[in-house]
């Protein structure tokens, strides 16, 4: 990216990359089995890449952390955003892929989203 003179990059991660946020996961099975035994290592790897990005100076990155992805159509729902935890406790635990794409396009040129790891959600829990 340095050679090409580009700085902007957007990554798609997941809720719960911060191990501390996993305790806020609603649902006994999801919290105690799925996160721990099935995708825990993947989430840990995502967190390691976020920490690396936070240490760089040459990228204007945004790591978008959506909830469980669904195949529904794009909606006009307002996004709920959390820059301090890797989940949005007051949002639904699922979001349409089309809405995630809409959010990615919304923040592409938004300088307030640069150098952020941002959990997103829509709706009510």
**Ranges with pLDDT <50 over ≥5 residues?**
none
As a percent range, the share of helical residues equals: 25-40%
What's the pLDDT, averaged over the residues?
92
Quantity of strands, as a count: 6
Cα shape: globular
Oligomer: single chain
SSE string, helix = H, strand = E? EHHEEEEHE
What Rg is obtained from the alpha carbons, in whole angstroms? 15 Å
How does the major sheet shape up?
A: 4 strands, mixed
Terminal Cα separation, in Å?
39 Å
Number of helices: 3
Strand order of the largest sheet: 1-2-6-4
Class inferred from helices and paired strands: alpha/beta
Beta strand %? 15-25%
In short:
This protein has helices at residues 28-38, 40-55, 97-107, and strands spanning 8-12, 60-65, 68-70, 80-82, 94-96, 116-121. By secondary structure, the protein is α/β, with parallel strands linked by helices. The strands form 2 sheets. It has a 4-stranded mixed sheet with strand order 1-2-6-4. A two-stranded parallel sheet has the order 3-5.
């Amino acid at each position: 990216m340095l050679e090409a003179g580009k700085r902007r990059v957007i990554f798609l991660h997941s809720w719960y990359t911060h191990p501390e946020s996993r305790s806020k996961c609603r649902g006994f099975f999801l919290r105690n089995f799925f996160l721990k035994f099935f995708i825990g290592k993947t989430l840990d790897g995502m967190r390691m890449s976020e920490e690396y990005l936070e240490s760089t100076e040459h990228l204007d990155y945004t790591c978008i952390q959506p909830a469980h992805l669904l195949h529904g159509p794009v909606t006009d729902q307002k996004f709920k955003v959390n820059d301090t935890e890797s989940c949005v406790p007051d949002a639904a635990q699922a979001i349409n892929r089309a809405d995630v794409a809409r959010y990615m396009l919304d923040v592409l040129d938004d300088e307030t989203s640069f150098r952020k790891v941002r959990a997103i959600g829509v709706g009510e829990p």
